[in-house]
Amino acid sequence: MDAQHEDGSLFGDDLLPRPARVLAPGAVWVPGFLRLDQQAWIAARFEEWADGPVPPRSPTVRGHEMSVRTVCLGWHWRPYAYSREAVDVNGNRVLPFPDWMTRLGRSAIAAAAQHDPELAGTPGQPDPEHAASPYSPDTALVNHYSADAKMGMHQDKDERSLAPVVSLSIGDACTFRFGNTETRTKPYQDITLESGDLFVFGGPSRLAFHGVTRIQPGTAPRGCGIAEGRLNITLRETGLDG
Ligand code: SIN
Ligand code: MN
What confidence score (pLDDT) does residue 145 get? Predict the structure, then answer.
């Protein structure tokens, strides 16, 4: 290699691969988990869900309308409960949770488990008592962020199951803040989730506070299927009866 290029100057940082990182036990970031064609396919499904029985809406939390717009599959989430019908929107039953998402969720857990033994061996169920049952998400919260949308620090704790949350991002990058399980303040780590990135939080990190401090407009890769803003899908096991 040409000596002048040995410091990496031939390739900008954006072309260097981003390695997977374990932020805390059970919290794994896998950059570039989804290929571009998979991102575009999922983005096209979002258009269909948005035209479905329950339109995207911004949930109201403690009197404030959230800036994201959300569509749910399997179970409808409202602060702070799940139901089959979107009782705070139009009363319609939400679309079913698709089988392909179960497969995607399982492959996401398997990818994350390669980097963190907390998630390994017992897909989706670090608790040895449940070791035999594979990860079986039954709800997806699909959030669309416009350029100025954010999400404050919170825990995902309306589920009865402590199986991991699988988070997938498509479109503009965001600054994602991953905190601790005790407080919504420091210590926390800020990372950039890009289009195609996977983030899993389970095990000891399942109830960690997290949020989105900003969207980075204009960073969506061409061909990801999201022209503006950011799509985030979180898969969860509600632990509620079918
Ligand atoms: C969420 O916490 O439900 C969404 C997180 C994200 O958008 O990355
Ligand atoms: Mn959350």
Answer: 98
Q: Is 42 in the pocket of ligand 1 (CB under 6 A)?
A: no
Q: What is the pLDDT of residue 123?
A: 45
Q: How far apart are CA 189 and CA 178, in angstroms?
A: 5
**Domain at 30-179+192-204, CATH homologous superfamily:** Alpha-ketoglutarate-dependent dioxygenase AlkB-like (2.60.120.590)
Residue 127 has pLDDT above 90, yes or no: no
The residue extents of the domains of the chain are 30-179+192-204
Q: Which residues surround ligand 2, an ion (CB under 5 A)?
A: 156
Residues whose CB is less than 8 angstroms from the CB of residue 125 and which lie 6 or more positions away in sequence, other chains included:
131, 133, 134, 135, 163
Return the percentage of the chain with pLDDT > 70, whole number: 90
CA of 154 to the centre of ligand 2 (A): 6
Residue nearest to atom 2 of ligand 1 (CA): 211
* pTM (predicted TM-score): 0.92
Are residues 148 and 206 in contact, defined by beta-carbon separation less than 8 angstroms?
no
Question: Which of 213, 234, 235 best tests ligand 1's pocket when mutated (most atoms within 8 Å of CB)?
Answer: 234
